[in-house]
């Protein structure tokens, strides 16, 4: 009944980083409102700076993840998207995507799959030739 609505992992992290940046700006703004109470202003400022720095770190991390992510063309909306791990969702249409062999035969290019999977495919092909 409660089927998971998949959202792209990269998009989720990106949204989180964006929220952090806004939170940081708002915190610093609140800090300005407390100009008269120096320690309060400083506290808000420090918290704001920390969340901005954290979101920058997260953005860098997304960059690293994007390098590892598998680029594919979404079979549903035909836009290029990236997958993290074996199961992920399209960034544009939220179509759940998988690299799992159970769902092979769907529009996945073999080259994009993992090495172990490639080996399996090669093996089964060899076996087919032998038989
Ligand atoms: Zn899509």
Commentary on this structure:
The structure is a single chain. With 131 residues, this protein is mostly helical. The chain has a domain at 1-69. Helix content is 55%, strand content 11%. The strands form two sheets. A two-stranded antiparallel ribbon has the order 1-2. The longest helix has 31 residues, at 38-68. It is elongated. The two termini are 44 Å apart. The model is unreliable at 106-114 (pLDDT under 50). Zinc ion binds next to loops.
Annotate the secondary structure layout:
Layout: H1 9-33, H2 38-68, E1 70-73, E2 80-83, E3 87-89, E4 96-98, H3 115-130
Antiparallel strand pairs: 1-2, 3-4
Helix pairs in contact: 1-2
Zinc ion binds next to loops.
Bound molecules: zinc ion
Which word captures the global form?
elongated
Strand order of the largest sheet: 1-2
Taking all Cα atoms into account, the compactness measure Rg is 22 Å
How many helical stretches? 3
Strand content: 5-15%
Helix content, binned percent: 40-55%
Let me know the average pLDDT: 78
Write the H/E string, N to C.
Answer: HHEEEEH
């Amino acid at each position: 009944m409660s089927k998971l609505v998949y959202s792209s992992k990269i998009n989720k992290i990106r949204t989180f980083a964006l929220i952090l940046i806004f939170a940081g700006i708002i915190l610093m703004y609140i800090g300005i409102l407390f100009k008269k109470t120096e320690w309060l202003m400083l506290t808000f400022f420090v918290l704001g700076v920390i969340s901005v720095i954290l979101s920058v770190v997260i953005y860098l991390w997304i960059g690293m993840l994007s390098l590892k992510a598998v680029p594919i063309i979404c079979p549903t909306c035909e836009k290029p998207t990236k997958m993290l791990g074996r199961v992920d969702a399209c960034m544009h249409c939220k179509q759940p995507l998988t690299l799992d062999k159970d769902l092979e035969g769907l529009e996945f290019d073999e080259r994009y799959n993992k090495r172990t999977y490639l080996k399996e495919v090669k093996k089964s092909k060899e076996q087919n030739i032998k038989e």
